[in-house]
Amino acid sequence: MILLPLTPVNTIEIHPLESAVDGTYAGARTPKHLFDHNNGYEIWEGANGGQGSNWVSIDIGSEMYITELKFRPEPDWYHYERMPRNFTLSVGNSTSGPWTEMYSGQLPTPDEGLTLSSTPNFDDLGFSVYSRYLRFDFSESICWTGGNGCNSSGHPQTLAEISMWVTESMG
Questions:
Q1: Contact between residue 128 and residue 66 where contact means Cβ atoms under 8 Å apart
Q2: pTM for the full model?
C-alpha cells in the first residue's frame, strides 16, 4: 500500500466485479450490486437504514491505483437523497483487513447542488490509492435528518453503483 502524488497513465474503468464483494446490506440488495454496471433497480441498501455504519469491501483482482470514483443514486424521484453523505475509502491486505483509511469524501446535499441527475464524482484522488483490497465505509444517508434542501427524511441508505477508474502505472 503506497501513497504517491503522481499522474495516472492510461486510466480505465473497472468493469463488473460481482465476486469478492462483502459488506452490510438489507434483504437481497447486496453489495455486489454496487459494482455490476447495472444502474437500474438492482441496488445496494445498507443494513442500518439510513443511519450509517454501513460498509462494503471488494477485491479488485490485482493491485492498482484508484484514480476516480463516481457514485450513482438509485434511479427514481428523490432517491438521490438516500445516498450516503460521507464515505471513507480504506485499503487492506485482504478482504477482511486490517484496514488503513486513505481517502474520505462528502457527497453534496440538495442545498449544495445535488439534483435528480447528479452523479457525484471524486476525481481528486491526486495521491492515488494503491491496493487490491478496498473498503468503503458510509455515514448516514444525505437526508436522514432532513434539512439541507431535502424534500423528506428518514430514508434507508442506497446506491445503484460505484464506478471506479484505475491504472496500473503512474508517471
A1: yes
A2: 0.84
